[in-house]
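Researcher: Sequence recovery benchmark, item below. Answer with residues only.
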């Protein structure tokens, strides 16, 4: 059985699709093991958890032709495990046909229509979209820091750990993007990089997760990582040389420019590069003159090169506003808009002298598409300004734009800067100017 991510489990070319439903007591992991599944090559399986709180889509699998050296398997059941157990995708009660569990599980064939519906739900998950980024070229690279206790965790990881277990997280900068290259550096007595991996999510902020060894406080940004692979150790002096001597390590993660990654890659085994997909990042780390930024350059600016919130203002927000309103003579925008009783919004947009929207800027926004974001302090800050003025709002960080309609508590659109298009630029212009 090859337990790895399904790259593209589209069902349109598949004769049969199935749903496997298991109760919590029967342990879903049992469905992921073994080879006697009675499937034909190409069939797709949707794994659903029937829990006391409802039905949840947990994984999507596909039966592929087995490896030539596996003589005992009829098919190789390959799983996409992008969504962690703690964030499974909820299903409406009536979406599945009636079923009865036998010994905690049941397997049902399903219609093409239901298969398309389940697949659309899966593909729309933030976790799945983020995980797909690992199949693309990385935008940034980062040097993450660990101590002996965290090294012990990686050294004892089970085989197959690298590809799918999104319950594993590491402290990281708030600008990390899904698909970024991660170098894991371990402090004294090691003082060397021992692992590489890929970021499998945007970072999230937490104040209730202890850092191993107690070497840092509880207020940290955490990123999920995957495709973890050991490498021949890269010692500190080699790292410093690759950084042209400009590397200061104080137990905190660091941005790794593309030129440094290019110098380090020859030290990493080709097999590791192939498995992880690590490569020289494509993000533009030499910041251009803000007034000369066009839309293409704006999308390519490396988030890692933006080390301060003011950098997001200078290189992301203000070029965006200039591009959005280049042909709008009746639209103006201003920096630092004071609001009586509410504070100071970073930007405001007016049309024909009437205020139309407000903008709040962060280096990284505390957000997760499937979490309770009504508790996000970043959202709360923007909404305080927007509600005081009775206008729509936009929160923007190094990687994303969050658009809020007037009076709503959650963003109705989240746009990724890396994939931003001219059409989206026009939509943002219309949104901000009313």
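Model:
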């Amino acid at each position: 059985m090859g337990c790895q991510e399904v790259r593209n489990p589209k069902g349109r070319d598949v004769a049969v699709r199935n749903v496997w439903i298991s109760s919590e007591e029967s342990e879903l992991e049992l469905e992921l093991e073994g080879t006697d599944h009675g499937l034909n090559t190409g069939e797709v399986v949707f794994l659903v958890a029937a829990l006391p709180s409802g039905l949840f889509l947990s994984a999507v699998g596909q039966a592929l032709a087995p490896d030539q050296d596996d003589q005992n398997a009829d098919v190789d059941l390959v799983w996409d495990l992008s969504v962690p157990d703690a964030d499974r995708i909820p299903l409406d009660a009536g979406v599945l046909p009636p079923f009865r569990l036998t010994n905690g599980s049941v397997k049902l064939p399903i219609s093409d229509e239901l298969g398309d519906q389940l697949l659309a739900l899966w593909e729309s998950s933030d976790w799945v979209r983020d995980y797909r980024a690992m199949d693309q070229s990385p935008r940034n690279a980062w040097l993450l820091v660990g101590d002996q206790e965290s090294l012990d965790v990686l050294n004892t990881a089970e085989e197959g750990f690298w590809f799918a277990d999104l319950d594993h997280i590491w402290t990281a900068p708030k600008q990390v993007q899904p698909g970024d290259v991660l170098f894991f550096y371990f402090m004294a007595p090691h003082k060397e990089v021992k692992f590489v991996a890929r970021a499998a999510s945007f970072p999230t902020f937490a104040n209730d997760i202890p850092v191993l060894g107690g070497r840092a406080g509880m207020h940290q940004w955490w990123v999920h990582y995957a495709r973890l692979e050991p490498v021949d150790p890269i010692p500190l002096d080699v790292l410093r040389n690759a950084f042209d001597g400009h590397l200061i390590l104080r137990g905190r993660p660091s941005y790794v420019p593309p030129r440094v990654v290019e110098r380090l890659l020859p030290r990493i085994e080709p097999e590791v590069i192939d498995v992880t997909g690590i490569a020289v990042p494509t993000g533009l780390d030499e910041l251009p003159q803000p007034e000369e930024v066009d839309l293409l350059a704006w999308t390519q600016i490396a988030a890692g090169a933006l080390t301060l919130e003011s950098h997001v203002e200078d290189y992301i927000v203000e070029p965006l506003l200039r591009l959005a309103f280049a042909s709008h003579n009746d639209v103006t925008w201003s920096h630092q808009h004071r609001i009586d009783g509410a504070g100071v919004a970073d930007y405001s947009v007016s049309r024909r002298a009437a205020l139309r929207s407000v903008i709040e800027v962060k280096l990284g926004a505390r957000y997760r598409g499937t979490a309770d974001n009504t508790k996000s302090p970043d959202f709360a800050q923007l909404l305080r300004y927007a509600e005081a003025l009775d206008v729509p709002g936009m929160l923007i960080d190094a990687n994303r734009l969050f658009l809020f309609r007037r009076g709503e508590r959650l963003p109705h659109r989240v746009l990724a800067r890396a994939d931003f298009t001219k059409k989206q630029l026009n939509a943002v212009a219309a949104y901000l100017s009313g």
